[in-house]
Amino acid sequence: MNPIDVDAAIAALAPCRARLIVESVRLPLREPFRISDHLFEHVDTVVARLEEDGCVGRGEAAGVFYLGDRPEGMVRALEAAKPWIAQGVDHAALAERMPSGGARNALDCALWDLQACKARTPVWRLLGMTRPEPLLTAFTVGNGTPAAMADGARRYAQARAIKIKLGGDDADADRVRAVRSARPDVWLGVDANRGLAPETLDRLLPHLLAADVRLLEQPFAVGADAPLHGLRAGIPVAADESIQTMADLERLAPLYQVVNIKLDKCGGLTAGLRMAQRARELGLDVMVGNMIGTSLAMAPAYLLGQQCDVVDLDGPVFLRSDHEPGVSYRAGLIRCPDALWGGGCDSHERETP
């Protein structure tokens, strides 16, 4: 992992005086997807499109549903930003004028894509990165009965890493055992999505250890992290919902061993790269995740993934349709073509979901 000087990279880029076009898109899922406290049948996203001097940049965001960061609010925020974007915007100004969340994520990623197009240079090179490599990614099994989750794990025949959604109930131990029995060959992580309490975690931990679970994600509710202080779980514990921004990271880093950075939470690739660097300085491992979206949302996260220990970028596999070209999944690895996003190509007049 080569270090990235984000500040130097953005300082070298001139502000863009661009026309912004905003679109809200509903993405139907192949089948319903359940986590501990929510059932998804579709995902609503917002696509920001920046145009300047014949160049185009795009960014997609789903927002953070459990914070009320939804597409209608993201669209309003982006529409309100059009006048000052037209006057000139760079990544530093964007961070000052918009809060973290989906709207800034869509705009920040679109801005990187536009800058790559203008420079005829891929984003990874603008950032001083080496050429991105394929990444081992986790594939997620939604919450359900133990038998159904075991079947879901088997369907991911190519997967080398699987993450399962817990329910926070008495069946969680059976779910873990069933999936591990179905797929004894994979790296296995579990995600509680805030569904556990200290006493349920105490009962569940021996079963996680017996199943060789390698990651426990967001066991407790946001604001209820204190019981993790001094916990010796024997498994790295990752913060997802509890750590949204850099301020959360500074405050809660002592309670966790891993932070799951999602561009929708922190407000874009620029913020995500900064958080990854700071997390390492604080002694944490770094994970990149997603809120479900098309390949357009995975592409900038794929660059962040080059700096991460754990990668969870399987969003497009849940959708009925995706972009072409899009990310590909082979032998458990995600690959992202330059032509999808950030490659410095001339335009993005391609098929959309």
What's the SSE blueprint?
Blueprint: H1 6-11, E1 19-35, E2 38-52, E3 55-61, H2 71-87, H3 91-97, H4 102-119, H5 123-126, E4 135-136, E5 139-141, H6 146-155, E6 161-165, H7 172-182, E7 187-191, H8 198-210, E8 213-217, E9 237-239, H9 246-252, E10 258-261, H10 263-266, H11 269-281, E11 285-288, H12 295-305, E12 310-311, E13 328-330, E14 333-335
Parallel strand pairs: 5-6, 6-7, 7-8, 8-9, 9-10, 10-11, 11-12
Antiparallel strand pairs: 1-2, 2-3, 4-14, 13-14
Helix pairs in contact: 2-4, 6-7, 11-12
Characterization of this structure:
With 353 residues, this protein is an alpha/beta fold. The chain has 2 domains: 121 residues, Enolase-like, N-terminal domain (Enolase-like, domain 1, 2-Layer Sandwich), CATH 3.30.390; 201 residues, Alpha-Beta Barrel (TIM Barrel). The protein is 34% helix and 22% strand. The strands form 3 sheets. It has an 8-stranded parallel sheet. Strands 1-2-3 form a 3-stranded antiparallel sheet. The chain has a 3-stranded antiparallel sheet with strand order 4-14-13, with no helix packed on it. It starts with 5 loop residues before the first helix and ends in an 18-residue tail after the last strand.
